[in-house]
Design goal:
Blueprint: E1 7-12, H1 17-31, E2 35-42, H2 55-73, E3 77-83, H3 92-105, E4 109-113, H4 124-137, H5 149-154, E5 163-167, E6 174-177, H6 182-190, H7 199-216, E7 224-231
Parallel strand pairs: 1-2, 1-4, 2-3, 4-5
Antiparallel strand pairs: 5-7, 6-7
Helix pairs in contact: 1-6, 2-6, 3-4, 6-7
Amino acid sequence: MVETPKKVLLATPHPDDAEGGCGGTVARWIKEGAEVVYILCTNGDRGSSDLEMSPEKLAAIREREQLEAAQVLGVKDVVFLRHPDGGLEDNRQFRGEVVREIRRHRPDVVMCLDPLRSRGHAHRDHRVSGQVTVDAVCTYAWRRLYFPEHITREGLQPHVVREIYLWGSEEPDTFVDISDSIELKAHTLSKHASQLSNPERIRERIASGSRHVAEQADLPYTYAEAFRVIRFAPDPWLVG
């Protein structure tokens, strides 16, 4: 059994990635009392083949869609970093932004895409957002000499995250039963109409994929989401 965390910080590269990757788990945890905050890393302003669509218009549409999806799930807040789609960089600015939100919200669990792939390709923003988030958790967020301006300017203290849940992993080791939240997951994805315009097809794809995860792992329930989990001991020497 996976213990429901009290506070969760989820870093997603684009609007709709979180709901598609782990929306069932987020819905279940919120229903069970978890407080969830999103960090939306990019504005998704390149995700259209419509010749009449401008990046500025698309960014505004996708931000609205993400807010609507988050509201359906019961997400407490969405932090918009507004990096351009395809423009995430593993640099001090981006690391500092993620570290700041970890120190500000002080989650038990951080969720992000698994940056490590050997059998398939992933969007560059997926890899960079995952790697920067993992690095922010370990060890930038818990050492006070990294980004000391968070302390001096905002009073944000170092924080040790208990676990990282990596979705989209090729080697998952942890599974969450989403049988009671799969319909809500599909509903939240339907809010991203600029990307996914056929609600019935969304439901079918979500059901098929989640059923496959449960069957492959020989689980005693119908629908599941899979994660690779990194755990950290809450030792006091980590902070300092």
